[in-house]
């Protein structure tokens, strides 16, 4: 398993192929490729897409297809899923899809796995059909995937071609402590969705580290935290740009989703006190400001959490401002001295 360790914290990108007001999913995909090429030059480690369904402002539903599109348009950055929602797929289909991707783009594909459906119950029923009420065993299916990728599966009646014998890193994704226990028990790297589910982040990564069992895939715990980042050349510019992500999450809180809107001068007339509190709670791990502010915030975050890698997601309306935000974020992290006491 190719997990690159460093004294410095690695940084990566989570993309939802967010659909912007006035644009289409086709525009989102073009923006994603432009951003992927940009962050590859900036030294980002990986570029992941998240599987979601039935959301008008998220176009990353066909996750494996997008991974191939981005991998084909870049040359060095790792590309993967953050994640594939395993209840929606059979392990064999996932193994074949990612085996195909790894065969096309060797040494560059990651497979992050989640246990949630990535959508509402009605849509989940449409995805799973007659299997909707069938029991789903996430740990069992993860092990099945590992088996399908294994050289030892050569004499099985069911084989993943391509896929068998390929080294495709599997990550466990989570937003609760359940996933932490599983990642630890299986000796796999752990990525936490602190960008929208901050409540159990500290507890989960602590449980993961305390209970980690070395495996053939990983000898020490490896933690990645996903966070929201909106960086600007000035603090005022960043604060204004961040009103788009605040509106985005207000749609999540209220159930009234809409395409990613342009920034506004003030949110005061757009939300009430309860919506503001709920949005701010979900966005607890958000880093908003100019380079010096981001550097100070991240230095404190890294010192407290000791994570190995940070994955930034940035819901920014203007594509050029979004690209600039990732540039400033990389510069801020590069300016932070390595944390000597980092626990891996």
TrEMBL record:
InterPro entries: Bact_Lucif_Oxidored (IPR050766), CmoO-like (IPR019949), Luciferase-like_dom (IPR011251), Luciferase-like_sf (IPR036661). It comes from the Bacteria. CDD domains: Flavin_utilizing_monoxygenases. Residues 22-307 form the Luciferase-like domain. Pfam families: Bac_luciferase. PANTHER family: LUCIFERASE-LIKE MONOOXYGENASE (PTHR30137). NCBIfam families: oxido_grp_1. To bacterial alkanal monooxygenase alpha and beta chains. This is Luciferase family oxidoreductase group 1.
């Amino acid at each position: 398993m190719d997990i690159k360790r460093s004294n410095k914290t690695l940084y990566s990108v989570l993309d939802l192929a967010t659909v912007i007001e006035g644009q289409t999913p086709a525009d989102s995909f073009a923006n994603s490729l432009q951003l992927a090429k940009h962050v590859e030059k900036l030294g980002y480690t990986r570029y992941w897409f998240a599987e979601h369904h039935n959301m008008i402002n998220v176009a990353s539903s066909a996750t494996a297809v997008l991974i191939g599109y981005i991998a084909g348009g870049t040359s060095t950055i790792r590309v993967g899923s953050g994640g594939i929602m395993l209840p929606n797929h059979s392990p064999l289909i996932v193994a074949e899809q990612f085996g195909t991707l790894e065969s096309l783009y060797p040494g560059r594909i990651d497979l992050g796995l989640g246990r949630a459906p990535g959508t509402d119950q009605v849509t989940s029923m449409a995805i799973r059909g007659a299997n909707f009420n069938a029991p789903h065993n996430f740990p069992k299916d993860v092990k099945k995937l590992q088996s399908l990728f294994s050289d030892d599966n050569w004499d099985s009646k069911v084989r993943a071609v391509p896929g068998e014998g390929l080294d495709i890193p599997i990550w466990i994704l989570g937003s609760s402590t359940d996933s932490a226990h599983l990642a630890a028990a299986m000796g796999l790297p752990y990525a936490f969705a602190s960008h929208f589910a901050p409540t159990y982040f500290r507890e989960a990564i602590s449980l993961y580290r305390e209970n980690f069992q070395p495996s053939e895939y990983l000898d020490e715990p490896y933690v990645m935290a996903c966070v929201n980042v909106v960086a600007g050349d000035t603090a005022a510019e960043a604060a204004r740009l961040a009103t788009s992500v605040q509106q985005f999450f207000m749609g999540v809180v209220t159930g009234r989703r809409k395409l990613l809107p342009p920034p506004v001068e003030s949110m005061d007339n757009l939300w009430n006190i309860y919506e503001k509190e709920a949005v701010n709670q979900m966005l607890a791990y958000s880093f908003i400001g100019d380079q010096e502010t981001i550097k100070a915030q991240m230095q404190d975050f890294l010192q407290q959490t000791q994570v190995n890698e940070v994955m930034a997601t940035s819901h920014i309306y203007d594509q050029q401002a979004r690209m600039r935000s990732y540039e400033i974020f990389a510069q801020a992290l590069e300016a932070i001295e390595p944390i000597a006491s980092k626990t891996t």
